Amino acid sequence: MQERIRKLHHNRIFALVFWLVVVFAAIVTLPNVKTIIQYDGQPQLANTSQPVKATQLKNTWGRNLNGTYTVNAVFNNPDGALTNKQLASVNKTVSELQKRSSYYGVQKITTMTNTPTSKPQLFSKDKSTEIVQLEVSHNQGTVRQMASQLKSQISTVGLNTYVTSPEIISDAANEHISSFTLVVILMTLLIALIAMGILFASIIAPIITFLAILISYITTLSLATNLAYHWNFAYSEYTPIFLLLGISLFTLLTSFWFFRELRNLTDDGADNQAATTKVVNDLGYRILISTLSLTIAFGSLMLFDFSTIRAYGLLGIGFAITGIASVTLVPVFTGMLGNSLFWPKKTRPRLKDHKLWFHLTKFGLWQPWIAVAVVLYLIVPVTFANRTHLNYNSAQDIPNNQAVQGARVLSAHFGQGKATPVTLYLSTNQRLDNQNQLYQLDNLTKKLRAQPGVAAVTSVTQPGGQPITQYYISNQLSTINENITGVVGQLGTVRNDLQSDSTNLKQKSLKAEVKRLDKLTSQTNTLMSDSSTLQTSLQTALSRSTAAGTTSTSKRITRYINQLNAVNSTLNTAVNDLTTLSNSVNTANTDASAAHSNLSNYAESIKAVSDSLKTSKKQVASMQKSMNQIYLYLSGLQTSEAAKSLYLSPTQIASGDFQQSLANYTDAKVQSTYLTITLKDAPNAKNTTKTLQQLKQVTQSQLRGTVLKNATLTFSGQPVVTSTIQTQYQHDLPRVLLLVFGITLLLLILFSRSILQASYWFLTFLASAFAGYQLTQVLMGWLTGNSEFNWQVPLLTFIPLTVLAVVELTQLALSYRLNDGPLLDWLLPGIHEVGQTMRHSLFIIIAGVLGLLAAESQTLTAVTLITIFTAIIFNLVLPLMAASFGKLSVVIPAQKPMQFRRKKRRPRKSRSKTKAKATPKASDSDKTEK
Length: 930
What we know:
Keywords: Cell membrane, Membrane, Transmembrane, Transmembrane helix
Domain Membrane transport protein MMPL: 68-361
Number of helices: 34
CATH class of the largest domain: Mainly Alpha
Mean pLDDT: 79
Largest sheet: 4 strands, antiparallel
Helix content: 55-70%
Organism: Levilactobacillus parabrevis ATCC 53295
Protein name: RND superfamily drug exporter
Main location: membrane
Number of domains: 5
Radius of gyration: 47 Å
């Protein structure tokens, strides 16, 4: 039994069983990768970020809108303006949707019919596009299912219809990435098989490599996906791709090293297991330091807060698993197969001595300064010629998606930022349905609209994006001034009437009448005639004063009316007395004393009326003058800036239109509201972050010192998400590069035991990477017309380039370290020896990234081109720079200062001896440097 166990251990069967168990468990526990990409693929923002706070606020919004998100149903007539028939068809479609709203999870529908004040924001200026806003519940189902169902429901004959929102577009981007992920995986594995088959002219060796890649990949992918599914660990939509990219490249390189050494041993007659053991022992250190470098470098990314960068930290685990599999799994098959691994070509291929690196190294040693100058002349202009800007738009690569097309229609007919507005939530402990708070909200709306980069702003006081005229003082003053003009005119009429009445009531004439009444018999007829005329005049004054008293509600006019009422009463008394007197005159021709008494009373009454009319005339004149002054003041106020302010009376606030606006823009407690800000540019524009920062500063400044100074402000929307990602990414990317490359350089220094040489090599790699990046930008701009890279391109490119640097520079570092001679003696043969395998590494790196082209994605195409350009440039420049800097690092310190040479002049023979002795010292110093 013990012998059998020893034999199984000798044949590495236990290692095979271990990996079979691991891969079986990984396959069984692997969650649905497409589902993980859909729900966890997008960057996870911190709980303290503005978009997350806004989402939490929206989830408790109330008014039956909690836990909803906004979806735009777009109806577009590609041939021009919507006809009345088409508008009726849209209304019919919306009515049908309203009937089935509960089925689709639609909590609210906003149209320009049921919300006329929002018409400018829902109907394009060219009248070709109408928007119907839907509030859809998150609990209804997946975004993808909801969009598909609503798209079929809103289909209208003769119109192009779309269902779009930032959530739908983000989901479509994830769907697009998941759709080509499997294609990229299969193509990458296929190219890996072909590459190994070409290198070894074998069928079995590629299969073993394929199994090693597959087992390492499935194990790492299952671990990463389970961490995201069960423990909410960071996950990127490109996680399956970048894990495969790193694992396949590293496995291809380590397998190549392994198979090449194994073939040399087995062709010399070594036993399969013995040869495998020797290869493991010989390559174990090299694989170990490469694995250690990559594991530490990428594992350190887990320390970052940004979820996408933290997701790349899973590569550290992937490289560790791959390194272990390279020294435990691959030897299982090599030990069993031996030389049969290279079937059908059994004879060892004859390796040619490639002279490229030899000649490049020789030129660098011959003219180091010229070599350095040539490299700098070729690389530096390319490296620093252009500065590309990254694109943070996830919809850039999505082809023929209805949500993306709908967003483009909105951008074309409403403006670039219409499909992705910014929402500003404002929360306070005060109710927002009174004049003071609404006044400040309206001022904030107007202030934000005036900012550069802002196309429109809607709020509770301006739901259509434009001020409502009847809510402003200027419009209200216009009505008041019209009323005052009428009142002043009426006062002038009354004043003229009083003047006429006062003139007609002359006391002297009445006294003369009294005297003439003494002659009753001869003057009775004349008295009756005068009395009738006077009665008619008084009745006319009475009717005019009554008409004038009912035309105004002013306080002064009210006092005037009271005075006129007193006058009217007096006039009525006078008329009654006059009537009585006239009647008495008819019946009292024989009673002169009675008639005289009555006429005396009449005269006294007429005197009182005349005095009262004079007093009323003065009061009306004073009132007319005051009203003129008020009119002039209000006319000036109407044209001033103060008249442009909002003033909502309690009656206007209680009106149906404004109550509907409150219901649309505030929560149930009327203590939170939001403003929708439409930007002029798309969210991936270069100045979006600057615009958002300006909006935040303006909002805080506008509310400072007002009743809303303590309000909580929260910004959300796709531009805010994009800006948050951009800010975090631009803050963390330099730190990522510094950390990973710093760790790689540190380990390279430790392995080579040389600070200067390792630094020279690594700087050469960095310059090559920058040059490859800029060349790809130029080529992509020429091919596609778009030179902007997706923001994930640097991170994805980071993987193959780091593998390239670690593998090639580690090999160079080990060769340098194992050399016991002087540096100058090692440079030409050492670099030439390393160059014999560099072409194979270059071939493997290029072949390993070609599978990314199967995705037909600009992002992955850019990664492929950057990797290829960098690998080619690096393999051409490295021997030149390594030789040149290596020689200069020895020659320059060995040179003596010119002043020292001039002071100590020696005979030619002594100088030659001194010079002859100088060379060994340089070698000794070189050993010390090493």
